[in-house]
Amino acid sequence: MQKVVWSIRSFVFVFWMAVTVVPWAVMSIIASVFIRGTPLYWLTTYWLRLVIWGARVICGVRWRIVGIENLNAADRSGAVILLPKHQSTWETFAFPGLMPHPLCYVFKRELLLIPFFGWAMARLDMIHIDRSKRSEAWARVAEQGRQHMAHGNWVIMFPEGTRTPRGSQGIYKSGGTRLAVATGTPVLPIAVASARCWPRKSFMLRPGVIDVSIGSMIASVGREPDELMREVEAWIEGEMRRLDPQAYAVAASSS
């Protein structure tokens, strides 16, 4: 019975996303003719706030954040590169509403082909790359990352590249720390236990609390990208096991 209720609520939530994204995307695309930069970002990403609000009201998905003092310190420091754990769509949608600066996501360009959502996203200051052309992709990330951070945006890159199942660990790639070292920008590691409520590749949401833990800024000056990423990885994965010990205990017992 419980799963039936979750299914119904999740269906209502998906319907909520579908009926709100079209008018909001059309409005954002039209608005982009007249405004750009930060004003357009906040206008367009307000839809993401609607989605997260819908997940809370319709499906009972709430969140709590620890490490706000670290976020405040990053806000005072200027440019920063966010390196979060990636388990779910939730953090992708929630972070623009939680962070004090516009976020510049680094993502594969195929997402721009998604009707309405991708079209609106194409009008924002993001970094979309062709993963099949690695050297060209890195040059684009480095060039545009510098530009966007100079205008007050924060770059966000998911080190694992893709969403990982609850209780698991992906391969941490050093693209984010490579950009940090190249630009002298500090990184901000973030642990997010979102899969307990919104699993990867699923729109079956479960009520509960998503824990977000924001770590201390880590300076990149004088560091090597791989070595810096290992520090980021160690902190995130250690924090994930503190936030969601049950998931990692189950994964360990089944391996």
Task: Describe the protein.
This protein has 255 residues and is α/β, with parallel strands linked by helices. The protein has one domain (2-254): Glycerol-3-phosphate (1)-acyltransferase, CATH 3.40.1130. It is built from nine helices and seven strands. It has helices at residues 2-31, 37-59, 68-77, 89-98, 117-121, 134-150, 175-183, 225-243, 245-254; strands at residues 61-66, 81-84, 103-108, 127-129, 154-156, 187-193, 208-214. The chain has a seven-stranded mixed sheet with strand order 1-7-6-2-5-3-4, with helices on both faces. Helix 8 crosses helix 9. The longest helix is centred in the first third of the chain and has 30 residues, at 2-31. The radius of gyration is 18 Å and the shape is globular. The chain starts with a helix and ends with a helix. 35% of the residues are buried. The mean pLDDT is 91.
